[in-house]
């Protein structure tokens, strides 16, 4: 039986099976020796299912759904939005990792740009999925290149992984930085300029 939440070949997604998610949470509670029928836990499976529906909402979206508004204003230099808060879910442990994303691009030759909020929406489409930080970073940069036909893209993500802080190695505060640089932003001077803007506080 196929999982209702799976990517098909075009990256289109099925629907969220809320009842199944609830049953899974109920099973988990039983597995840890809890009583899912005690008063405090009665609503928990439904709450957790709704929480996952929200945290994983990017599974049912595509980047094209959010990079919609575009304008031609002929700006041909770097556009950078810094400190976009992210919360994602580590696909190894299903624990959150959270931090900030910095997203920049050099618009297409045509001058096509997008609304600033759309960059943050793009980040959420990919963050709200089971992820690894490297793939999240890459997918955002590749979407900017593909959908906006950007001449260059840079994405830097700094995040703390709960799977490293609350369990396992238990190193709270450890931050992981990943970057993806594409197109003209790979040129050393342009890249250095973008990085210095990103690092400036
Ligand atoms: N590269 C990368 N690794 C990640 C990310 N999120 C979690 N991990 C790592 O995935 C690895 C999974 O390793 P495993 O040895 O299979 O799992 P584990 O026994 O729970 O590992 P420990 O966390 O070391 O206890 C761990 O080293 C995690 O730190 C991520 O976004 N990127
Ligand atoms: Zn993890």
From TrEMBL:
Entry-linked PROSITE patterns: GTP_CYCLOHYDROL_1_1 (PS00859), GTP_CYCLOHYDROL_1_2 (PS00860)
Reaction(s) catalysed by this chain's protein: GTP + H2O = 7,8-dihydroneopterin 3'-triphosphate + formate + H(+)
Residues binding Zn(2+), per UniProt: 90, 93, 163
Keywords: GTP-binding, Hydrolase, Metal-binding, Nucleotide-binding, One-carbon metabolism, Zinc
Residues annotated as domain GTP cyclohydrolase I: 22-198
Pathway: Cofactor biosynthesis; 7,8-dihydroneopterin triphosphate biosynthesis; 7,8-dihydroneopterin triphosphate from GTP: step 1/1
InterPro entries: GTP-CH-I_C/QueF, GTP-CH-I_N, GTP_CycHdrlase_I, GTP_CycHdrlase_I_CS, GTP_CycHdrlase_I_dom
Annotated EC: 3.5.4.16
GO molecular function annotation: GTP cyclohydrolase I activity
NCBIfam families assigned: folE (TIGR00063), PRK09347.1-2 (NF006825), PRK09347.1-3 (NF006826)
Subunit structure: Homopolymer.
Family: Belongs to the GTP cyclohydrolase I family.
PANTHER family to which the protein is assigned, alphabetical: GTP CYCLOHYDROLASE 1, GTP CYCLOHYDROLASE I
Protein name, per record: GTP cyclohydrolase 1
Organism the protein comes from: Streptomyces halobius
């Amino acid at each position: 039986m196929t999982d209702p939440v799976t990517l098909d070949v075009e990256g289109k997604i099925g629907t969220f099976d809320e009842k199944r998610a609830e049953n899974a949470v109920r099973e988990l509670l039983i597995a840890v020796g809890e009583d899912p029928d005690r008063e405090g836990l009665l609503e928990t499976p439904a709450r957790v299912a709704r929480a996952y529906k929200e945290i994983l909402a990017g599974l049912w979206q595509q980047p094209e759904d959010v990079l919609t508004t575009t304008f031609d204003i002929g700006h041909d230099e770097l556009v950078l939005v810094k400190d976009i808060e992210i919360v994602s879910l580590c696909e190894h442990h299903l624990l959150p990792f959270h931090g900030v994303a910095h997203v920049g691009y050099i618009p297409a030759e045509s001058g096509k740009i997008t609304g600033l909020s759309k960059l943050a929406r793009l980040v959420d489409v990919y963050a709200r999925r089971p992820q690894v930080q490297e793939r999240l970073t890459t997918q955002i940069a590749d979407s900017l290149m593909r959908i906006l036909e950007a001449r260059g893209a840079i994405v830097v993500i700094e995040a703390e992984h709960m799977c490293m802080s609350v369990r396992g190695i238990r190193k709270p505060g450890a931050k992981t930085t990943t970057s993806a640089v594409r197109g003209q932003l790979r040129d050393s001077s342009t890249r250095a300029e973008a990085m210095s803007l990103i690092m400036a506080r």
